[in-house]
Design goal:
The complex is a heterodimer of chains A (about 525) and B (about 450). Chain A has helices at about 5-15, 70-95, 130-145, 165-175, 190-195, 210-215, 225-235, 250-275, 280-320, 325-345, 360-380, 385-390, and strands at about 20, 35-40, 50-55, 60-65, 95-105, 110-120, 125, 185, 195, 395-405, 420-425, 435-440, 445-450, 460-465, 485-490. Chain A is α+β, with helices and mostly antiparallel strands. Chain A has two domains: about 5-245 and about 305-355, no CATH class; about 395-490, Thrombin, subunit H, CATH 2.40.10. In chain A, the strands form four sheets. A six-stranded antiparallel sheet of chain A has the order 12-13-14-11-10-15. A five-stranded mixed sheet of chain A has the order 4-3-2-7-8, sandwiched between helices. A two-stranded antiparallel ribbon of chain A has the order 1-9. In chain A, α5 runs parallel beside α9 (about 280-320), α6 packs antiparallel against α7 and α11 (about 360-380) packs across α12. The longest helix of chain A is centred in the middle third of the chain and has 41 residues, at about 280-320. Chain A is globular and about 105 Å long. The two termini of chain A are about 45 Å apart. Chain B is an alpha/beta fold and about 450 residues long. Chain B has an eight-stranded parallel sheet. Chain B has a six-stranded parallel sheet with strand order 16-15-17-18-12-19. Chain B has a three-stranded antiparallel sheet with strand order 11-13-14. The longest helix of chain B is centred in the first third of the chain and has 18 residues, at about 15-30. Chain B is globular. Chain B starts with a helix and ends with a strand. Chains A and B meet through α11 of A and α6, α7 and α11 of B.
């Protein structure tokens, strides 16, 4: 945790209310995000209990698995989920604009520009908490290798038609969520935690109700800290939490006292229906089964609805912040990612493999590290509060230009290398001849640390570039006396990484080429006894 | 190099002969072996660079085009200078990036060293050296016959993946006890895979090629007898090494007598025993604990003021202990910056102050270390990392002085390692928790309690 975050949290403790950790919104928010509030069954990893899902705040779709251990009911749930999610994703996938991309020409090996489609918007998925992101990944993993009856008539438990496709999309979203700064799949607790600092630990911040209470307490007369405590602990006369956890895990008191008896009644009603001897009796018992199912639906809705409302309230709070200047730039990268997955699906490629090969893993890691550095730089440039944190950490400094002396490089064609003296109260960790950068019209201008100035709290920088080609620097390219400047010790833009070999050319140090085994499509997980009720 | 031969040889351990035997075996496998790779583990100061230079010269003499991969520009420049010193006639290429100041300007003075940012300009030279990052951008039609990968344990697996296509066979040299490479983002998703891109290059290499010959340099020439035993026991329990010198071969003496202050007493203790612990009262502090930082700075100031002189096997006469022979090691960069500022306030310049990561591979007469856990309320995986403490405790030829707040032993007991166990990954021994305890227990015997 950085020093400024610690300070903000201490201030939040003292004020008993969350403190801003950002002055702009650092993540893109879609005008029409898809909110997904899932619940899972205790003790059954990957067995969904239900979900609220949809793009309309006032009309979410409630999906429920009345008996979570029943494979057929689970498939029904997944098929319904696909009916909500896929049309939303496909609507985005269909609307495209023309864009340019640099590709390596396979024949000449040269980098050439090609015109390609870019989806004009991407589907954005919002879940309440980080555990929800993991659950999306798990759902994707459990669905993408399934076979439909159409794909494989022999499969013993064919998946509903669109379920494997949903699995591939959720897998893509789950992977993309690991890229720093990406906004395709966001957890509301992470979003709020990025923009506000509360007086509790980051672990406690995973409770969406408590986190929101710190930021904007809903009840009158309570401070953020009191409201958060209430959200976390307060129970009604029956011992149920007033603010249910945002899931996907449920509260044990709810599981034991409400859900388990309800599921048991449902099971009994189902057994009774199966044992019905004539039509009249069956009608009666079907009524009982429907009533039992309705009861479970009501229970699931009662536990997801508060979270659903919280997510939308969180979105309201975030929308009040102006968008960060670079957030759109990062969203464009998300759109590229979305488009490329769409293209892979359209091209009929197999689902994402269970494990990355050596080259894919290395490429992903390199991309994420680059995006992490890019995100850190862009957030600081977009937001003075974030920059203040970097300044406090000695990674940037701001101050006033007190002197500018013109000097020139020692070459046949001397170029300007002006010495700029800056007075600053910051304490940057500058080494000898360290490189520093400032944003000049959105482009980074580099300078070199030339040593401390003659007066106290001053330092001298030699401006190195972006001054034009002539002997005299272009107007506005050199700071003038009295200008307020902010230089960073970190670079603003990231260089592309090295090109890795193709997977077919994996070197001997990494196990060699994948061989023929990799060409066979992966089968779904083998059945075990636990899979069938 | 089995345990038996080590025990049998123990009564008459001849460090020079042991090291020569190991080196001969390594060079034999490198030049005449049939495997595509040879791995050499080298404890701190065991002559790794000397080995690399020697292997490079012998490969060049055998007429095998050689590329050398090191991890930083400073390491590459250092190797070029050493190669040129050993064989000034050898045509050497230094491949560098297109940044300004991409390489040490001292290289320009060497007649047979050619520098270029393009690999094509250096074709045909006997040895071409560069960083892993630069090599990753090179493409060749015909791979090099041989490569030497230096600091291979500090190289990440993905960075080896980017360059492994450039060579047919390679000698991998490194110190397994130093800091592991790290990633700035989470990489748990690949934990347990043989080619986990965030693992070290050697881990991946050996996972895929378990039959490669592995050697070990058995003698540390840097560490004094007082330190080799502790560092070997604490950080290399299954691959012990010895110091090349014996107790009494090295001596640190001071012209100015002690003034009785804490820093002076700890300096005297370290001069006699090789170790000193300056213990400040227990307290939770920010990372840049002002008191501890000042204590570090005053120890350095006194080391210089007291006209120290180091006697060692290198020269018959005592050599003055100058600022250039002292280093300060910290865990974090802001701590290093704070120490630098405190030293400047005391009028000290030219003393190296850096983090463990940047001190790797460097050597000094005396080191002053700000303990990574000093003043902390918790012990994170970062602070418990074995390699961090190992680097800090193994940079010195004479003495190491640790500045620390009281209570770290209790802190360690409160925070046992809690890293999740990942299936398929090799558990590293010793873990940082245990190594920290071992070092702390040893330091406790050389403690000077001080209330500034």
């Amino acid at each position: 945790m950085s020093l400024i975050t610690t300070l903000a949290r201490l201030e939040a403790v003292r004020a008993e209310a969350a403190q801003p950790a950002a002055t702009v919104r650092h993540r893109h928010l879609s005008d029409r995000p898809l909110v997904f509030v899932p619940l899972i069954t205790a003790g059954e990893a990957g067995a969904p209990l239900g979900a609220l899902v949809g793009t309309d705040r006032h009309a979410p779709r409630l999906l429920v698995v009345p008996q979570p251990r029943d494979r057929d009911l689970r498939f029904t749930f997944l098929a319904e989920l696909a009916d909500v999610v896929l049309p939303y994703v496909e609507a985005c996938a269909e609307s495209v604009e023309a864009a340019e991309r640099t590709e390596t020409d396979p024949e000449t090996g040269k980098r050439v520009k090609v015109e390609v489609d870019l989806c004009s918007d991407a589907a954005q998925l919002i879940v309440p908490s980080r555990a929800g992101v993991d659950f999306v990944r798990l759902l994707g993993r459990s669905m993408r290798f399934r076979r439909t009856a159409e794909q494989d008539p022999q499969t013993p438990h064919p998946a509903p038609p669109r379920v494997p496709l949903l699995g591939r999309w959720l897998t893509h979203y789950g992977e993309r969520a690991r890229v720093p700064g990406s906004s395709l799949l966001l957890a509301m607790t992470d979003l709020l935690g990025r923009h506000w600092a509360t007086g509790q630990s980051t672990l406690e911040d995973q409770h969406l109700g408590a986190l929101l209470a710190w930021i904007a307490p809903a009840e009158e007369g309570l401070t953020g800290a009191q409201a958060a405590r209430r959200a976390e602990l307060a129970r009604d006369a029956e011992g149920q939490l007033l603010c249910p956890p945002a899931g996907p895990a449920t509260d044990p008191a709810f599981d034991n006292r409400l859900l388990a008896p309800a599921i048991e009644r449902y099971d009994r009603a189902r057994t009774a229906l199966a044992a019905a001897e004539d039509g009249l009796e069956a009608d009666d018992r079907l009524g009982a089964l429907t009533a039992a199912e309705r009861e479970i639906r009501a229970l699931v809705e009662s536990r997801t609805r508060p979270t659903w409302e919280s997510v939308w309230r969180g979105l309201d709070l975030l929308r009040e912040l102006p968008a960060g200047a670079h957030a759109d730039d990062r969203w464009t990268r998300d759109r590229w990612s979305f488009t490329s997955h769409r293209d892979r699906v359209l091209a009929g490629e197999p689902p994402q493999p269970r494990r990355d090969d050596a080259v894919t893993a290395a490429n992903k890691l390199a991309t994420r590290e680059r995006e992490q550095a890019r995100l850190e730089a862009q957030e600081a440039l977009d937001d003075p509060l974030v920059m203040a944190g970097r300044r406090l950490a000695g990674e940037a400094f701001a101050g006033e230009v007190v002197d500018v002396v013109m000097e020139y490089s020692e070459s046949r064609r001397p170029s300007p290398r002006p010495l700029v003296t800056v007075r600053t109260d910051d304490r940057p960790h500058l080494g000898e001849r360290a490189r520093v950068y400032r944003s000049l019209g959105g482009r980074p201008q580099a300078a070199e640390y030339a040593g401390p100035g003659a007066e106290a709290d001053t330092l001298v920088l030699r401006i190195m570039d972006k001054m034009g080609r002539g002997r005299e620097p272009e107007a506005g390219s050199v700071p003038e006396k009295g200008d307020l400047v902010c230089f960073t010790l970190f670079e603003h833009e990231q260089r592309g990484g090295a090109k890795l070999p193709d997977p077919e050319e994996t070197p001997w140090t990494h196990g060699g080429p994948p061989g023929e085994a990799a060409a066979v499509p992966e089968a779904a997980d083998a059945q075990t006894e636990e899979d069938v009720l | 190099m089995t345990a038996e031969t080590a025990t049998a040889a123990a009564p008459a351990f001849d460090p020079g002969a042991e090291a020569a035997r190991a080196t001969a075996a390594i060079l034999h496998d490198t030049l005449h072996g049939t495997e595509r790779g040879v791995v050499v583990d080298s404890p701190p100061g065991a002559g790794k660079s000397t080995l690399v230079v020697r292997a490079a010269l012998e490969l060049a003499e055998a007429g095998r085009p050689l590329m050398v991969v090191a991890q930083t520009n400073a390491q590459v420049d250092d190797l070029v200078l050493r190669l040129a010193e050993k064989n000034p006639a050898l045509p050497v290429g230094r491949l560098h990036s297109s940044d300004t100041d991409a390489y040490d300007k001292a290289l320009d003075a060497l007649p047979n060293v050619r520098t270029s940012a393009k690999a094509g300009d250096l074709a045909g030279l006997a040895v071409v050296l560069s960083t892993a990052a630069k090599w990753a951008h090179v493409t060749v039609d015909e791979p090099w016959r041989h490569a030497i990968v230096d600091e291979a344990y500090q190289m990440r697996s993905d960075s080896l993946l980017a360059v492994a296509g450039l060579f047919e066979r390679a000698l991998f040299v490194g110190d397994p006890g130093q800091l592991d490479p790290f990633a700035t983002v989470g990489s748990e998703q690949w934990a347990g895979l043989a080619y986990d891109p965030s693992a070290s290059a050697v881990t991946t290499l050996l996972a895929h090629n378990p039959g490669l010959p592995q050697h070990r340099l058995p003698v540390s020439w840097r560490l004094p007898a007082s330190a080799a035993r502790l560092v070997s026991d604490a950080f290399y329990p299954y691959t012990p090494f010895r110091s090349g010198t014996d107790h009494g071969d090295r001596r640190l003496a001071f012209g100015v007598p002690s003034d009785g202050s804490g820093p002076d007493r700890v300096i005297d203790e370290a001069a006699v025993s090789g170790w000193g612990l300056l213990e400040l009262p227990a307290r939770h502090t920010p990372r840049t604990d002002p008191e501890a930082v000042r204590a570090v700075a005053s120890v350095v100031r006194r080391l210089l003021d007291r006209e120290g002189a180091a006697t060692s096997e290198r020269s018959p006469d005592p050599v003055p202990l100058t600022a250039g022979r002292i280093a300060v090691g910290t865990a974090h960069r802001d701590q290093a910056a704070a120490v630098r500022a405190a030293l400047a306030d005391l009028g000290v310049s030219d003393v190296t102050v850096d983090t463990a990561n940047r001190l790797q591979g460097r050597e000094y007469d005396v080191t002053v270390v700000l303990h990574p856990l000093s003043g902390r309320p918790d012990a994170t995986a970062f602070h418990l990392e074995t390699g961090r403490l190992c680097v800090l405790a193994s940079r010195h030829r004479h003495a190491c002085i640790v500045v620390c707040r009281e209570g770290v032993d209790g802190l360690l007991d409160d925070y046992p390692s809690t890293e999740p166990v990942q299936l398929g990954t090799l558990v590293k021994f010793p873990d940082g928790w245990e190594a920290n305890h071992a070092v702390l227990a040893h330091l406790a015997e050389h403690r000077v309690a001080w209330r500034p």
